[in-house]
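> example.struct
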């Protein structure tokens, strides 16, 4: 099976690499020449555990290739996966420019039946637009070449993307023909040997499934963050409330952890796009709009707690910021709560000593620049600090050397933005502990 994957970002590179790991011949394509040259030299542009090793292995096995031209390899391909970005516009709608560019390139160059699979996260109705774009290019050529367009949304968790792809809990596929269904069954058969499910449906339902799934998870997070705020007001403990809720098998425990808001490349963008899709069809997505509103407010919670714990004045204070990435095991800082907290602290006149195991270079390059001090490790971050703000729950933050930290700090405030510490233990050590909903 010969597969092309257009776009070597997070989804494209992981997908292409995992397909090749299952024995398929895969060419990953990107118009960024520098990026392709680096990939050929095994320089991976993203941090994802285990990805580099798989890339190197499959390049050596001659199953994984990189190119800057879809046209040059298209004749050899059975299917082309579109995995380019769909960044949100100012109005929250997904920008389909790159997706439609690939469709037009595909239409200008196909010579035999080929399946075009949209893996990028796109609004309902996009595959129809893609199909029309291909058809228009074929009409310009004055040729009739059979093709199909399928939808195959990704459900990868950053930090666990390889495992998610290789052992999916489900594979969602939208098709319009038996021929397309047969090809997708063949591609995903190696991933289904342990009874993982492939769910076929119509294309529009497949497109909607992606947005609905991510928005549901975002809803659970925002719901628990609202409950946490109410717990603080009433005197309840959200950790106990969560345990009681999770014991109900209809609810379960996943995505019920309160914190300082969700971030990343998926949830914020997909929630915005779903709200926008509703608006375009004259329907207000009331629940999802509230989810976004709650999350935006929640990203301030760590800052507000710091301000309260430090007497309402942050000017001249020093804060150790633990964690920059939006979640552990990634360097992704898109929509990260840490950026909001740091910006608010800097605006208030505070000094920020930031530490993250992976994302420091990303922060320097794209987000906070040189406006904060980047610490070499946990202990370096707390020197002369008045407070610690935990934003990302990396494993190395779980059991820090509190006695040593206390010696290095000037103050004794700990704001736990992910509720990973025991309040009574920190209180016994002389720290003023502030959690979420506790």
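> example.seq
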């Amino acid at each position: 099976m010969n597969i092309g994957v257009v776009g070597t970002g997070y989804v494209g590179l992981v997908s292409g690499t995992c397909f090749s790991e299952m024995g398929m011949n895969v060419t990953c394509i990107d118009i960024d020449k520098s990026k392709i040259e680096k990939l050929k030299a095994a320089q991976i542009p993203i941090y994802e555990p285990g990805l580099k090793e798989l890339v190197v292995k499959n390049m050596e096995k001659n199953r994984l290739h990189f190119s800057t031209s879809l046209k040059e390899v298209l004749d050899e391909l059975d299917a082309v996966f579109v995995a380019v970005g769909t960044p949100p516009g100012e109005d929250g709608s997904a920008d389909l420019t790159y997706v439609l560019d690939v469709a037009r390139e595909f239409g200008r160059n196909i010579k035999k039946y080929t399946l075009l699979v949209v893996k990028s996260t796109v609004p309902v109705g996009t595959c129809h637009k893609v199909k029309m774009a291909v058809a228009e290019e074929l009409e310009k050529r004055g040729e009739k070449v059979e093709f199909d367009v399928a939808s195959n949304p990704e459900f990868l968790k950053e930090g666990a993307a390889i495992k998610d792809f290789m052992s999916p809990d489900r594979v969602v596929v939208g098709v319009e023909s038996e021929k397309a269904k047969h090809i997708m069954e063949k591609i995903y058969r190696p991933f289904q040997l342990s009874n993982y499910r492939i769910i076929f449906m119509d294309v529009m339902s497949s497109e909607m499934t992606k947005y609905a799934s991510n928005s549901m998870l975002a809803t659970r997070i925002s719901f628990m963050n609202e409950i946490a705020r109410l717990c603080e007001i009433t005197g309840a403990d959200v950790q106990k409330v969560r345990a009681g809720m999770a014991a109900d098998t209809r609810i379960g425990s996943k995505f019920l952890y309160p914190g300082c808001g969700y971030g990343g490349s998926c949830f914020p963008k997909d929630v915005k796009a779903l709200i926008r899709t509703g608006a375009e069809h004259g329907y207000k997505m009331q629940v999802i709009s509230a989810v976004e509103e709650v999350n935006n407010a929640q990203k301030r919670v760590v800052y507000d707690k710091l301000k309260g714990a430090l007497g309402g004045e942050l000017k001249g204070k020093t804060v150790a910021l633990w964690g920059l990435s939006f979640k552990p095991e990634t360097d992704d800082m898109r929509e990260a709560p840490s950026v909001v907290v740091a910006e608010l602290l800097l605006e208030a006149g505070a000094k920020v000593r930031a530490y993250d195991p992976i994302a420091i270079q990303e922060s320097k390059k794209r987000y906070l620049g040189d406006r904060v001090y980047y610490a070499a490790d946990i202990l370096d971050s707390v020197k002369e600090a008045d407070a610690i703000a935990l934003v990302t729950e990396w494993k190395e933050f779980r059991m820090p050397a509190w006695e040593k930290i206390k010696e290095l700090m000037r103050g004794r405030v700990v704001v736990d933005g992910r509720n990973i510490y025991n309040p009574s233990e920190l209180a016994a050590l002389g720290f003023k502990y502030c959690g979420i909903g506790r």
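> remarks
The chain has a mean pLDDT of 95.
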